[in-house]
Write a structure and sequence with these properties.
Length: about 475
């Protein structure tokens, strides 16, 4: 009997949880909501470089790699798994092929591969030696973008729009722009809502001249006629919804239809880059074929936050063009950098000149770092392997302390030289910069209050302005 009562209690709890979740979901899920604490950042532009950016080739000046070039790497201390195995196996240290120089008043070391980013070095704040929970791309991408290495969790953009809503009700609160060359690892899961209400999933903008499919209504259909059709559809959907308990996907669909209707008036102006001056287009690199694709995305991102979009995620790297340079890094890495260096520097300069940088948090991240060695001893075009202990992130704007640095890796750029920096600390910091408290930003799912940082992270006060 006790067992039956226990099962009944569990079923009742599940029903109550569903009803509570429904009651907590407002009629307009994207209505603006107050920050938990006062913060400068109102929007976030998240630049994700997929494949694992080489930290010792771009951001970390390590003379030891030059001094010991070609020699055996010592076994990596305080590491486990693949990295420990590879570092102990026969290998050779690969030095950076490009010189490092110090820039700005902060004296920030940056590779010669990033000449445009170097011009805004004093606006950047770096975190070094971040550890992710997996050394493979798929789980690492999920971990960096959702806080969990397994599919099914809510993405960072979904959490931020769940917590803050959106300042513009005529555009999506969370927009994603992918690489023109293919889809990201993990697909829509890395910008999905997970267990949060479906309204908070990202909206994917397509590449090319038509980012939004079927944006313009049919010539044969007038706006009043379309409004009547949508009103009838909404009435039918709401009638269906009233008879059921688990309706968040339908609720999200109703909201999506209404948003699409409003976007037909506002979005054409948003995506019309012809309104921008030649000087602005050149600033983003849209006058050169190699920088034009990512430059266009960066310019669209600026236009979105200018219009109140809460979170914009830009994905760079797909297929054979990911930052996953296991071989021939000498030829591959310069191409990756050239594609994004000028557009990103242009984005930061443009935001700053328009007075938007203070209210916009810009984040650069990848899913992992790289190793200082190559296990392929016979290749004349060496590369670098995965390193879950050596991730680097930089941030700018939105309450970040310009020119600051937290964390440091060892002389080989393998892992943190001191205390480890778990990824959840970075996530806690990003939420804090957006005015969100990680412990208050929760969602009851399967009997547990979920949050982006799981067991909790330390806000990295050292990079806060």
């Amino acid at each position: 009997m006790d067992a039956y009562l226990g099962l009944g209690g569990m079923a009742l709890l599940d029903l109550l949880t569903v009803e509570q979740a429904r009651a907590a979901t407002p009629a307009n899920p994207m209505r603006p909501r107050p920050q938990h604490h006062t913060a400068k950042a109102k929007s976030c532009i998240f630049l994700f470089m997929e494949g694992g950016v080489s930290q010792m080739d771009l951001f970390e000046y390590k003379p030891t790699l030059v001094r010991l070039a070609g020699q055996q790497m010592p076994a990596a201390k305080n590491t486990t798994g693949e990295l420990l195995t590879f570092s102990a196996a026969p290998n050779r240290i690969i030095p950076p092929y490009w010189p490092f120089r110090q820039h700005g008043q902060s004296g920030r070391y940056l590779s010669a591969l990033l000449p445009h980013l170097a011009t805004v070095a004093d606006d950047l704040a770096f975190v070094h030696g971040i550890k992710v929970d997996n050394n493979n791309h798929g789980p690492a991408v999920y971990h960096t973008l959702t806080g969990n290495q397994f599919p099914g969790s809510a993405s960072i953009g979904a959490w931020m729009t769940y917590g803050l809503g959106s300042q513009n009700q005529d555009l999506p609160g969370f927009v994603v722009m992918g690489d023109r060359r293919g889809s990201t690892i993990g697909g829509a899961g890395v910008w999905g809502n997970g267990y949060l209400p479906a309204a908070y999933q990202g909206t994917l903008f397509r590449n090319g001249n038509t980012p939004i499919v079927d944006l313009n209504r049919k010539a044969s259909l007038s706006e009043p006629q379309q409004r009547k059709e949508l009103d009838l559809l909404r009435w039918m959907n709401e009638r269906h919804s009233e008879e059921r308990s688990q309706t968040e996907e339908l609720d999200a669909r109703i909201a999506a239809y209404e948003l699409a209707f409003r976007m037909q008036s506002t979005a054409p102006e948003l995506v019309n880059l012809a309104q921008e001056s030649d000087a602005t287009r050149k600033l983003y690199g849209m006058d050169e074929a190699v920088t034009e694709p990512f430059g266009k995305q960066c310019l669209l991102a600026r236009r979105m936050v200018e219009r109140g979009v809460r979170f914009v995620k830009l994905l760079h790297g797909a297929g054979g063009d990911r930052w996953d340079d296991h071989g021939n890094i000498k030829e591959r890495l310069p191409v990756h950098c050239q594609e994004v260096d000028r557009p990103i520097a242009g984005l930061l300069q443009d935001l700053k000149s328009r007075g938007l940088l203070d209210s916009t948090l810009v984040v650069w991240l990848s899913e992992m770092g790289r190793t200082p060695f190559d296990n392929n001893l016979i290749s004349d075009k060496p590369g670098r392997d995965h390193n879950q202990y050596g991730l680097v992130c930089w941030m700018a704007g939105g309450g970040v302390k310009p020119g600051s640095t937290f964390g440091e890796t060892d002389e080989f750029s393998v892992r943190a030289a001191g205390d480890e920096v778990p990824l959840r600390d970075l996530h806690a910091t990003l939420l804090h910069l957006m005015g969100l408290n990680q412990d208050r930003l929760t969602f009851l799912h399967a009997g547990r209050y979920k949050k982006l940082t799981d067991i909790g992270g330390r806000v990295i006060a050292e990079v806060l302005g």
